[in-house]
Specification:
The chain is of the alpha/beta class. The protein has 2 domains: 39 residues; 65 residues, no CATH class. Helix content is 35%, strand content 31%. The N and C termini lie far apart (77 Å).
Length: 108
């Protein structure tokens, strides 16, 4: 009977170990997935944007670049990007957009 308790304790400790390993692996997967998403953001070139003068800088009126994850540059034409037009990214199938702190308005 004593051996049964020992086996049960061993099984529970194996389950506990497996649970800890699986939790650790899952945590690492989440960290690497997040890192991969951040590192795959692309700064589109200035030629990928149509923009116009706006109070304090420029407003992006259209994005002509590709789909995926992008990071909007802080400046275009040497001026800070302060606005993003309402349909600037319409129908572009972007997965994420990083907006710089210089942007103070989006849309109308």
């Amino acid at each position: 009977m004593g051996s049964r308790k020992h086996n049960r304790g061993t099984r529970e400790s194996k389950r506990s170990y497996k649970r800890r390993v699986m939790t650790g692996l899952f945590t690492l997967m989440l960290l690497f997935a997040n890192f991969a998403a951040v590192t795959h953001e692309a700064f589109a070139s200035e030629s990928d944007y149509v923009y116009r003068p706006a109070a304090g800088g420029v407003e992006i009126t259209k994005y002509t670049g590709g789909a995926g994850a992008i990071a909007i540059p802080e400046t275009l034409g040497g001026q800070p990007v302060v606005r993003i037009g309402e349909v600037a990214f319409f129908n572009k199938q972007l997965t994420s957009v990083v907006i710089p702190d210089s942007v103070i308005g989006i849309g109308s």
